[in-house]
Amino acid sequence: MELLTLFFIVLIAAGLGLLIQWLPMRHQPMPTYPQRAPFLGGGLPETHAWNRYHTRYYPMTILLIAFEMEMMFMYPWAVVFVEQGMKAVMEMGMFLAILSVGIVYGWREGVFKWQ
Amino acid sequence: MAVSWLQRLAARASVPVFPVRGMHGEEVLYRLALTPGVELVDSPRHASILLVAGGVPPDQYGALRRVHDQLPAPFATLWYRSQPLDELASATRIDDPDVLSGALKAMHHELMCGKRGSSPRLLPDEPPNPWEGLGDDGHGGEGMMGGVPYGRPMAMNMHDDIRDGLTLDSLTVTLGPFLPMLPPGLSVEVTLQGDLIQTWTTRDPPYPIALESVFFQALQGPVPIAELERAMARYHLKHLYFALRLAGLEALALTALRLAFESHSNPKRVATLRRRLVRSGFFGLTTTGQGRLDEETARRVGGVAARAAGLEEDWRSEDEGYRQLGFRPLTQRQGDTGARWRQTLAEVEQSLQLAAQAEQDATHTRHSDGVETPRGTWHRQWPEDQSTLLDDLLPGLEWDEALSTLASLDLVPLSPWSLEEASGAPVAQAIAEERRA
Hints:
Largest interface: A-B, 25 and 47 residues
Low-confidence stretches of chain B: none
Oligomer: heterodimer
Helix content of chain B: 25-40%
Structural class of chain A: mainly alpha
Number of strands of chain A: 0
Structural class of chain B: alpha/beta
Distance between the termini of chain A: 61 Å
Order of helices and strands of chain A: HHHH
Largest sheet of chain B: 5 strands, parallel
Largest sheet of chain A: none
Number of helices of chain A: 4
């Protein structure tokens, strides 16, 4: 019964959403092809706009993840460190070694350089 | 047809006008920018009226048709001192600047209330490059990137990056001649890698700009220095208006424009404008040293650009009348975008001070074999188009840096007609025809 009620709520919500979008559009013809072209002040694009765009904050994101993941793992590690002893130190060493590869990569990409 | 309350509301709103800046159409647009109830928008998609201000050369009719068809229906066109396209022969043409804003408002009201039909579409409603439908994914070719979807090649990694070695796909577009962020008439082919300008090739030079008649009179005989200097300040303030609008500082842009149109601006108000510009961060946009001109290039460009690069090149130093007023050319050292704006503001202040001083003593120019125009020295020949230097100056800059550099440089050629002569419709059309020839 609850599932049926939920189904009807979803149906009504989706129907209303579509109706609200359809109502103002019902007398509007599709814009023409020239109108849909990118506005370049009368100029034309020579290549397609489907191009790959580099997110330049990407190396900075790597650095943030590297340091954040380190701390996320270190808190629970600190709790079990006394119990586990040397084994925990080894595990943390391996983890930090892997993380440091990311940090070294970020260093090479110039993330520590203030621009 | 019943007029809905939404249509009535839309009819009462300010008129969104997209201006196509033709030859010598700038002056009327300055007036419209200060007219309440008219809004000059930067994209045809936000406009309900296309205003073609000034003559358009016939070889740019294709571009004009493309811009025309980008306005959403219903829309109308108005031709100010310009010959409508053959397909729009019945479109409204106005030659009197005093009735223009009223005509725009009436036209907008009629459009919104359904009393006027939309302007017809000029281009066929067909995809400019049809879908090829070839290849595994319908991308028009073999391999992941080998196709030409919609007949246009994919942006490919064809150029080595010139900034930091991070190579991106290059996107080549033709911009202009009616792009509001470029000088009127300038058409360029730009290759971008992300936001970095890889290549910049000038296709069509900007339209010549007309100076006030006092500069022409100065070449024929003595003229009052006050008049000459006020015309100089007006020109620079209008140029500043364009740059401030580009930077998104609309209120400051209008302040600069109001100052330009005041008959007797006080230099103190320019100082206030400068302080407001500093607070708004306008100079912060230009402090990275971009757009620096070397000595030879700065000399070639002349005017503000030359003096901002430290060259004391100013014809006014040669004139006895100016010497009598204690004139000395102001200069900057850096020669970059920021220096050019500091120089522009300093020269506006200097011009207004000189004008006030010259008015008291009724000082006139003495030499008539040359004149210092806002674009540089006019001696034997007038300053010519220098837009091709952008081809070397702008590659390597990011898009925003390139546009602020471009706005700070005044590279347009001077028109052989004065502003008063060129505003006449027959002359504007004649210039367009001459350009075509």
